[in-house]
Amino acid sequence: MFTMKDIVREDHPILYKVAEEVTLPASEENQETLKEMLTYLKNSQDDAIASKYGLRPGVGLAAPQIGLSKRMIAVHFQDFDGKEYSYGLFNPKIISHSVEQAYLSTGEGCLSVDRDIPGYVPRYAKITVKATDLEGNELKLRLRNYAAIVFQHEIDHLNGVMFFDHINKQNPFAVPENSHSVDQDEE
Q1: CA 171 to chain centroid
Q2: For residue 58, what is the domain's CATH number?
């Protein structure tokens, strides 16, 4: 079982490297690792388990965050409409995106970052992601607003990009052009 001690922090060089494609069909070892990543997210959202093991709650986890330079992500969350997203994905890739942008008014956080970094993180409001799931099925997911933001955050990790790299350095709370905030009451 993964715990916070398995998660590398922002000073680790692996977080700034482009991760390697996973050869498909995925090896048993890669499948097991991805299942464990998904289990961490589920456990981190269960108050009793999170408290017992000192887990920080998370909605997404990328393989570089556990020290593996592989293109694998896990996500487990509900969007503001109550739709659940729970996936372990190999080689996820954004194949199309909107011009319009979205951001979280509360900013973003990351399991690999132990400090609060204020500011808006501009993301595409809508994206289409192509990936292979744990069962070996090729998926095409059309995502918008909060779901799109979560997936972009995790896919960024596979490209060596951290969320704070997107924040406007001169004015962290400058509203990105052609954008809207994504919040509980706006979905």
Answers
A1: 24
A2: 3.90.45.10
Query: In degrees, to the nearest 5, what angle opens at C-alpha 141 toward C-alphas 32 and 104?
Result: 95
End-to-end CA distance of the chain, in Å? 34
Q: What pLDDT, on a 0 to 100 scale, did the predictor assign at position 185?
A: 45
Q: Per the domain annotation, does 119 fall within a domain?
A: yes
Is residue 187 included in any domain, yes or no?
no
Residue 79 and residue 128 in contact, taking contact as beta carbons nearer than 8 Å: no
The pLDDT score that the predictor gives to residue 183 is 78
- Strand, coil or helix: 59: coil
Angle at 46 between CA 135 and CA 2, to 5 degrees: 60
Output the DSSP codes for 115-144.
Answer: S---S---EESEEEEEEEETTS-EEEEEEE
Q: Domain total for the chain?
A: 1
Q: Mean of the pLDDT values across residues 85-89?
A: 98
User: Residue 16 has which token pair?
Assistant: 């700034």
Comparing C-alpha atoms, which of 8, 3, 6 is closest to residue 19?
8
CA distance 152 to 139: 16
Q: Does residue 170 surpass a pLDDT of 50?
A: yes
Across residues 146-160, what is the average pLDDT? 98
Catalytic residues: 154
Q: Report in angstroms the alpha-carbon separations of 39 from 55, 75, 80, 94, 122.
A: 12, 10, 22, 24, 29
Residue 31: domain span: 4-182
